[in-house]
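call fold(seq) -> C-alpha cells
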Amino acid sequence: MPGAPAHRVPTLGVALGSGGARGLSHILVLEALDDLGLRPTAMAGASIGALFASVYAAGMPARDIRHLVTHTLKNRGEVMKRLLAARVGRISDLFGAGLGNPVLIDAERFIGGFMPEAVPETFEELSIPLQVVATDYWERCERTFAGGPIRPAVAASLAIPGLIRPVQLDGHTLVDGGAVNPLPFDLLRARADVVIAVDITGGHGTEMRGVPAPFEAMFATLQIMASSIVGEKLKSGAPDILIRPNVNDFRVLDFFRAAAILKAAEPVKDEVKRRLEAVLG
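ret:
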C-alpha cells in the first residue's frame, strides 16, 4: 500500500557466556547467525565468551573462527609452546615456600599468543559494539569494558583464578568475568529488540562418583557458582532466547577435545535457527 511504513527488522543482541572449553560451542551459534544472514547490533561476553565475541565482532565469519580454532588445537606441540611462552610461574615454585604457581599464565601474553590479528586494537574499531565483563577483585564488583584497548579487557575477563594471573587495567585488579556475570545478557536489554544468550555453565557429565582431582574440583566449583548466578539472574528476567548447548560432558580445560565438543553441540545450530525465525518472523 503506497505510503505505508516499511517493516522494521528487529535488532539482535548476542550474549556469550563463560565456561572454558565448553565455549567452543559458541562458534556453532555464530555459524547459525551467519547462515541466516543475521548480524547482531550489539554483543556482550564473559571469559571465553568475551574472546569469541571479540573475534566475531571484529568481522571474522564464524566458519573461519571454527577453522582457526580446530587448526590451532590440532597442533598440541604449538599450543603448549604458546602456553609455556605465556607462563609466569616456575617449576621450582612447587618445592619452595608454596607461594608460587608453576602453571600460572600471564593473561595478556596468552591473548597475544592466541587472539587472531584480525581483531583490532580498540573496541571503537569493531564492526559490532561489544561489552566485555570482568571482575574487580578488590572492589568485589563487576567491571564492563566497551571502549579503549580490547586485548587487556578480554585478558582480564579470561583470568580464571588459580590458572591465569589477574590483570591490572585502569587502576583495577581484574579476574574472570564469570565470577560476577557469567552470562551478561542484561547488558543488552536496552541495546537490542531481541536478545539471545548462550549458557554453558550448567550440568555435569555422566561421571558422578569419587573425589575429583584438585584442579578439576576448583574449576568445576567455579562452574557451579557461575551456574547459580545465572539461575538467579533468570529469575529476575530471562533473555528472549536462551540457548544451552549439549556440552555437559566436557570440562573447563578440555580444549584438546575440540572436535568432540563441536560435534556434541552441532544440533544447537538448528535450534538457534528455528527459534530466531520464530521470534523474528
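Residues 91-99 have pLDDT under 50 and may be disordered.
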